[in-house]
Amino acid sequence: MISSERLARAYLSRVAEPPAPALVNFIAGHGPVEAAELIREGRATDAVLKETSARRCLDRARQDLDEAAAMGARLVTPEDDEWPAWPLLSLEVATGRGADGVAAPIALWVRGEVRLDEAACDGVAIVGARAASAYGEHTAAEFGHALAGRGMAVFSGAAYGIDGAAHRGALASGGGSTVAALGCALDVGYPAGHAALLNRIAGRGAVISEYPPGTQPAKHRFLVRNRLIAALTSGTVVVEAGSRSGARNTATTAGVLGKVVMAVPGPIGSVTSVGCHQLIREAHATLVASADEVLETVGRFGVSMPAAGSARRRRTDGLAPQALRVHEALAERRGRSPDDIATESGVPLPRVRALLPELELAGLSERCETGWRRTRNAVPNHAAERPPPRE
Amino acid sequence: MISSERLARAYLSRVAEPPAPALVNFIAGHGPVEAAELIREGRATDAVLKETSARRCLDRARQDLDEAAAMGARLVTPEDDEWPAWPLLSLEVATGRGADGVAAPIALWVRGEVRLDEAACDGVAIVGARAASAYGEHTAAEFGHALAGRGMAVFSGAAYGIDGAAHRGALASGGGSTVAALGCALDVGYPAGHAALLNRIAGRGAVISEYPPGTQPAKHRFLVRNRLIAALTSGTVVVEAGSRSGARNTATTAGVLGKVVMAVPGPIGSVTSVGCHQLIREAHATLVASADEVLETVGRFGVSMPAAGSARRRRTDGLAPQALRVHEALAERRGRSPDDIATESGVPLPRVRALLPELELAGLSERCETGWRRTRNAVPNHAAERPPPRE
Q1: What ipTM describes this predicted complex?
Q2: I want to staple B166 with a disulfide (CB 3.0 to 4.6 A). Which of A23, B126, B203, B237 is the partner?
Q3: Start and end of every Smf/DprA SLOG domain (chains A, B) (predicted)?
């Protein structure tokens, strides 16, 4: 049994192209059910009719909800407990102040295991160029890994380059989660080359979109999507960016929303660091050179401090980042194939093949019938290292 | 024929280990000749005697001046036109505000072709780690080359690594000059491996030291020397620095002196960039990724961008309040004495004496038979293109 509010929100999520500030206002005034009815009948203000005229006769609400359910997705609306009301309030406030293009979403399509409000509560965005350098991808993966490992949720846009590396780093960690916000519908799942990655993100975190099923990716939709990444997190880290880039757009939006804007420096000759240096120099973004500095900057200093007693050196300390990621991808009992480990860790298969014997020599991995597994007593219990659950 | 002031300054430059704030004060009160006499006789305040007791019977003034002359060096004193009074005023101001270890020098031993006051007027410091990376040395050389090529004087400490690369880059350029400030005497010329470089610097710029002939290098002397590099320039660029380093000390001193502090970013994994990132993140140093950005940051944007028609700005714009008052006290025809100008402007006489040459450099005042007067027209000579002195 689908509630009338949910049906109305599903209709309203398709009736206008976001961001739709007049429609958001109209819904706030009338409630979703009445607002949907009035719009269907063409009885709304000019501004609302202008936003909705092209699609107001198209009611696929029930079908969209069914399709979403079939792919394991749900519609999260302001009427739901899961709605991240507090983070999204920044969009309302900025819109109220006259900022353009940052109206709140009407509803969010969500596929994944985490509650969106809980993820947003611990959210940090890691974004950057698609055409990233090896340095940038390495940094994004490290930051994603370290932040998720400390219980944060790593938000990004699932694009190639920095975004993908950040998600992969987060997935390779023991804790935390990762959330991908798309500029198309969940069932479209752009970019196609990241279909498997999106599945893994949904399995450990969430893939979200404000676009109803079937909506195709478009350049403006990526920019519109960026405001969600900025709004749902307490701060945005730009790892690499050219001088004009989508990542800088997300950072600018984060600034408009009053969120913390951070950028990672790089060699001054690198074109993919130009945008980061400009953000630090001209827009006063905070320079961050480590995941600890990210936590410190977003006011989560306590998260980075290891709990009492865990200060003793771990045997994985000093492992190179890729080796660490391969090690994290090993299970404790069941062996995994190098292919599986490559997929899980995001480390290329030939490197995985080279690293596994090295880890074995270091006493950190062992071969078994089904592949490779983690040496049992080499590493202290992961759960013990995680910070205590916070509100 | 050596003047008694010069002999006194030569004696005083050896009698105390710099920085010697009590001695500097004592000389300001008594003049160098009387101050030298009183100290020789042990008739000074306790603070002055404490600073001078170890060496007050050692008078090698004439010998030191002869030795300096023999190696082509000179003693530059506050009584000389060449004395960089305006830049060094920052040391007095900071000392007056209670900052430790930044007392002005008593005199400077100089070997080289440029006038020190002129070099300081266009001075930018480029400093950094001795154990620099290839990236750091390359950057220092590029910055040194580009800044000197635009007529700036590149100040540094002649150490291995970043310092040497900055000097070399400046020397390789067509214009500008470079100045090395040493933590030992000119005739000692540390580091030994840079003896040829120091000769080349003296040939195109200047090698300076506040230490009389024979003074050996010592760790504290490098730190003491750093304040001269900071004071004699309008800004300090740290190219590479570890988390605790002499370069950071220079940067901190530059900040204390109200000068611009800049740092070059680098890869976050590089230990030689850690200090730069800390300066940007924690001490709010300005990130600079190019020589143009250095010029822009020290307020020499015009130097890098010779724009037409930007002369609408009044030539006294940007003058510090006291400089403006001194300028207003000047007449257009009849020259006035510094005493009259001090009375008229209400600015203390020593400040008037320091400001008048600065205004002259900025093309705003000129000497005449009866004293100082206002420059009549905006004569487009070299001096007129210089920005007015700032506080």
Answers
A1: 0.74
A2: B126
A3: 75-298
